Amino acid sequence: MRIKKGDTVLIIAGKDRGKKGKVLHIFPQERKISVEGVNLLKKHVSPEKQRQQQKGKKTGQIVEFPAAISVSNVKLICPKCGKGTRIGKENGERVCKKCNQRV
Predict the structure, then answer these.
(1) How many CA atoms lie within 13 A of 41 on its CB side?
(2) Under a CB-based contact definition with an 8 Å cutoff, are residues 76 and 11 in contact?
(3) DSSP strand E in 5-90: where?
(4) Does residue 69 have a pLDDT over 80?
(5) Cut 0.85: pTM above it
(6) Could you tell me how far CA 4 lies from the centroid of its own chain?
(7) What confidence score (pLDDT) does residue 60 get?
(8) How far apart are CA 98 and CA 89, in angstroms?
(9) Contacting residues for 20 by C-beta, under 8 A, at least 6 apart
(10) Among candidates 84, 88, 74, 72, which has minimal Cα distance to 30?
């Protein structure tokens, strides 16, 4: 995979098309990535029994977290030209296909 953790990417397909975000996690086995603020899911978390019962509260939480999306649905944003672009490899380095600069 040519996208790395910390890269800024543009979503090109799906319900969040057109959004930009920073890559948080990479799952190379499944060819998926997790992007900040994109593909958010809600998870209902039950209260921790020991800690919250001592306080007298029995409330849970609803937590939002970014789920993984396919690498084929994103384009890397080149830091030099600022556009969503494809990435090539030359001499082991990533190269922007639009401006031919190292990424």
Answers:
(1) 9
(2) no
(3) 8-11, 20-27, 32-35, 40-45, 61-66, 68-70, 74-77, 84-85, 87-90
(4) yes
(5) no
(6) 10
(7) 79
(8) 13
(9) 8, 9, 10, 11, 77
(10) 72
Q: In the beta sheet, which residues pair with residue 84?
A: 77
Cβ neighbours of 74 (radius 10 Å): 23
Cβ atoms within 10 A of the Cβ of 9, count?
23
CB 83 within 8 A of CB 98: yes
Domains and CATH numbers, the chain: 8-39+66-96 (2.30.30.30)
| 61 secondary structure, DSSP code | E
Listed in sequence order, the residues at least 6 apart from 15 whose beta carbon sits closer than 8 Å to its beta carbon are 39
| Region of poorest pLDDT, from 42-51, 52-61, 65-74, 79-88 | 52-61
* pLDDT-based confidence at residue 56 (cuts at 50, 70, 90): low
Task: Kindly report the length of the chain.
Answer: 103
